[in-house]
Amino acid sequence: MIRIVRSDLPAGTVAEMAVLTRAIASTPVDDRSEKARASWRSQAKVRSSVRSVLGEMAVGFTTCMYCGESRGTDVDHFEPVVRNPLRAFDWLNHLLACSTCNSHQKGRRFPVDASGAPLPIDPTAEDPFEHLLLTLSLGVYSPLTEKGEATIAVLGLNERGLPEGRKHARKVVALALREWDRARERDRSDEMAENVRTVQDQPFADVCQSMLRQAFSPGADVVFSDCPDLLVLLRREDLREALLR
């Protein structure tokens, strides 16, 4: 999971969603959840607009904003509609998710802390790396905070083959970065750009971003002890700028 920058919706969609929210608010409290779900299902144009902007926000080939592996096919309500019907058409409550994360993992699960604040991480509102540490050699996440622990549990971030996928992603990143360096030595800017795109377009963008961050961590020499040449590359300012653009 990585930080996602939220874009703006078209003004027409924003206006339509405000009208729909007011309609839900005017419904008796006990009927709001059903009203919100029915309204969401019936508003194909609004859903399409929301899905389109989320797709533009997502990394790579519109990958899931939760697991980072599968293609994002669903518009997920971060805070479930059944819990808060008035957020059914709240743009800040929409994320792009794969069907597994949306329906089978997260679903209606939405744990909160003692103050009532959500424990799952919203990658458009906070930096996941403040709550999660990725062990690159194992492809496994460890929690740094209570939010990190809840997010791992709710989304199954260490389950369903995700660790193996992250380990494979690390190998792809390493190969692409070494090819980038060889192209740099030959002054082949086109090949350099192609290798950057290879890294940016593959699933598990969290792996590369974690590698970039850990390259300057106190234990970087240990983390990259099996590939010191890669550590040198990850610390190059021109490469970092290209990868994070």
Automatic annotation (TrEMBL):
SMART domains on file: HNHc
Q: Which GO terms describe its molecular function?
A: endonuclease activity; nucleic acid binding; zinc ion binding
Matching InterPro entries: HNH, HNH_nuc
Superkingdom of this entry's organism? Bacteria
Which segments of the protein form a coiled coil according to its record?
A: none
Pfam families named among the record's database cross-references: HNH
Domain HNH nuclease residue range list: 49-103
The protein here is known as HNH nuclease domain-containing protein
- Originating organism: Lentzea fradiae
